[in-house]
């Protein structure tokens, strides 16, 4: 099956005239080295890289390292293709692309980085949910409407050092998303979609800020795991997405490859995989 997978991913690359890497994994520190090794093994690199991305999210610091690594090897163009989902920090990673390819089934998510909580047994928890609850309790305290039980909960559950760590992760997520959108996604944006007004650098900055605020607004989306479809991203967030489903041949190749990859990972009982035409690595 690995031989067939390599054949299928090479076929995708030949069709779109780009190198292709599949990244199916949480954004955790152990995968950075895997990505580096797989990228370095691609010989005679093309000018473009397409990353087939599927992730539940994870560390924003890992996302930054992966984005920098990909740009080191492919300075001209890195794009992301989402066959199913790229949530949280995975959404931030997708925003570092020159293009984002989705179809009607694909989803991104609110940018809510997951942080290791030392006080809760080294488990990953959504930073924005943690901060939102803390801010709610502080607001009630200022209004003198907080209960004794809530005061006890506040003292027992919220560590000032962790709060600072979560705030830093939130701010870094927004900072990276804004920087990457302006530098990569908007680099060829020259006129507005409807009125065809020339786009200025200030307009790019303002649009990136607006997108970051919307994706960072967990109250708007109600849930860390809320799926944002291509239509929602286009209409509500005002971010242009490329629909790979419109190209029937490409769509067929992606679906055939993705189904086989999912079947193989289930067969060998692996929850993460990084794959190029040269190598499959899973765990």
UniProtKB/TrEMBL annotation:
One protein family per Pfam: SDH_protease
SUPFAM superfamilies on file: ClpP/crotonase (SSF52096)
Gene3D superfamilies, per the entry: 2-enoyl-CoA Hydratase, Chain A, domain 1 (3.90.226.10)
Source organism, top-level taxon: Bacteria
Coiled-coil region(s): none
InterPro entries: ClpP/crotonase-like_dom_sf (IPR029045), Pept_S49_ser-pept_pro (IPR002825)
UniProt cross-references to PANTHER family, sorted A to Z: PERIPLASMIC SERINE PROTEASE (PTHR35984:SF1)
Protein name per Swiss-Prot or TrEMBL: Serine dehydrogenasease
């Amino acid at each position: 099956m690995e031989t067939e997978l390599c054949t299928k991913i090479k076929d995708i690359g030949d069709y779109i005239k780009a190198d292709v890497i599949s990244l199916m994994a949480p954004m955790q520190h152990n995968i950075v080295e895997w990505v580096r090794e797989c990228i370095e093994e691609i010989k005679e690199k093309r000018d473009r890289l397409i990353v087939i991305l599927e992730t539940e999210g994870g560390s924003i610091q890992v996302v930054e390292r992966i984005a920098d690594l990909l740009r080191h090897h492919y300075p001209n163009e890195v794009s992301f293709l989402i066959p199913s989902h790229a949530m949280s920090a995975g959404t931030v990673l997708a925003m570092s692309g020159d293009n984002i390819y989705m179809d009607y089934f694909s989803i991104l998510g609110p940018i809510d980085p997951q942080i290791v909580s030392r006080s809760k047994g080294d488990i990953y928890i959504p930073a924005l949910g943690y901060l939102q609850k803390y801010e709610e309790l502080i607001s009630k305290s200022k209004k003198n409407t907080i209960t004794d039980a809530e005061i006890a909960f506040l003292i027992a559950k919220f560590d000032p050092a962790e709060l600072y760590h979560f705030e830093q992760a939130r701010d870094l997520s927004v900072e990276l998303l804004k920087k990457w959108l302006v530098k990569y996604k908007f680099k060829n944006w020259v006129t507005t979609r409807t009125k065809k007004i020339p786009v200025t650098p200030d307009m790019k900055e303002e649009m990136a800020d607006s997108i970051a605020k919307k994706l960072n607004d967990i109250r708007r989306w109600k849930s860390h795991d809320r799926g944002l479809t291509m239509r929602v991203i286009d209409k509500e967030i005002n971010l242009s997405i490329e629909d790979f489903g419109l190209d029937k041949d490409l769509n067929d190749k992606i679906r055939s490859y993705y189904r086989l990859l999912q079947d193989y990972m289930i067969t060998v009982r692996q929850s993460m995989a990084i794959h190029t035409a040269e190598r499959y690595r899973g765990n």
